[in-house]
Amino acid sequence: MRSSSGRNSGNNGGSRGGNSGGRGNYRGAGNSRDDRQGGGSGGGRPRNPRPEERKYDVGGSGAPSDGPKKGRGAAARGGAKGGPKQSPQRGGGRTAPARSREYDARAEERNRERYANKPQVKTPKTFPGAEQEGERLQKVLARAGMGSRRACEELIEQARVEVNGEIVLEQGMRVDPEKDEIKVDGLTVATQSYLFFALNKPAGVVSTMEDPDGRQCLGDYVTNRETRLFHVGRLDTETEGIILLTNHGELAHRLTHPKYGVKKTYLAAITGPLPREVGKLLKDGIQLEDGYARADHFRVVEQIGKNYLVEVTLHEGRKHIVRRMLAEAGFPVEKLVRTAFGPIGLGDQKSGWLRRLTNTEVGMLMKEVGM
């Protein structure tokens, strides 16, 4: 039996040095654990270095490192922990020489000769229907002011649109606005860039676009328009009422030509008494110095004592025609106002005001003269 004094001496010996073969007390051993793991004189396992003692070869210079390379080979040195991976230079760091311009020119010439006789490949259209000409019908109608594209599509769905005399029953039809005749509800749509205005001409305004004498004229009401406009027909200087302005030459010509017989309506203030046969006399025709003149319609609108307001409708456009007819019948005109030009009425438009005709009104005018 070993005594307790022998155990104590063994422990004390283990604490004093690592050469003893007995069990040591690690609590008070100090660095004896490193001595056991290190290459002490006892001949144990080789000691692993601490992290602060390790050395890595991250420079790529090939110099040997002082620390061990166990578990961290050459492939691992270029990783995230060992530093950036460096690729070796080829050819001892020399770069390839640049090609000359003559070489590039000869290569380009050979490529052109190679593909000179080959047919060109046509790429397909990027959307269906692109190979078709013209514009979509709903787009043309929307640009003409018939509403939004969706509203124009609804017009087509309701079979209210016709192109060149045929009713359109499907969406997406393509048309040529310059050549095709487009109608909505039987009225022609002005798809081109035409302008149509109605002016309530005041008294004293000359029915010309420019006046050399400096008098107020129709051109003074459209001076801010880039497109040149011209008036449809004329009104006497002292006559008030509606007069049309447009840049559509063919329509203006037909509206004023006697062949198409576009009617104009006037209100005239005269002084009576007015016999009943005056209306029949005007309808049958009155002899003037330049021939007979006949009224299409005559009626008394208002009577206040001897003052009468009569309405006269006729399709002729001779100078001062209404004034001369009533004067020949014995009733000089005190005031004259044109209230309608064909299907376009003056309404409550104020004197001197200019308004743009709607698409429906333009279509009615075109229908009146067979356009």
Keywords:
single chain, 371 residues, alpha+beta, nine-stranded mixed β-sheet, four-stranded antiparallel β-sheet, 22% helix, disordered N terminus
How would you characterize the overall build of this protein?
The structure is a single chain. This protein has 371 residues and is α+β, with helices and mostly antiparallel strands. The protein is 22% helix and 19% strand. It has helices at residues 4-16, 32-37, 101-115, 137-143, 149-157, 249-256, 278-284, 321-328, 359-368, and strands at residues 135-136, 161-163, 166-167, 174-175, 182-184, 187-188, 196-201, 230-232, 240-246, 264-271, 286-288, 291-293, 297-304, 307-314, 335-341, 344-345, 354-356. The strands form 4 sheets. Strands 7, 8, 9, 10, 13, 14, 15, 16 and 17 form a 9-stranded mixed beta sheet that branches. It has a 4-stranded antiparallel beta sheet with strand order 3-2-5-6. Helix 4 packs across helix 5. The longest helix is centred in the N-terminal third of the chain and has 15 residues, at 101-115.
Describe the protein's topology:
Layout: H1 4-16, H2 32-37, H3 101-115, E1 135-136, H4 137-143, H5 149-157, E2 161-163, E3 166-167, E4 174-175, E5 182-184, E6 187-188, E7 196-201, E8 230-232, E9 240-246, H6 249-256, E10 264-271, H7 278-284, E11 286-288, E12 291-293, E13 297-304, E14 307-314, H8 321-328, E15 335-341, E16 344-345, E17 354-356, H9 359-368
Parallel strand pairs: 9-15
Antiparallel strand pairs: 1-4, 2-3, 2-5, 5-6, 7-9, 7-17, 8-9, 10-14, 10-15, 11-12, 13-14, 15-16
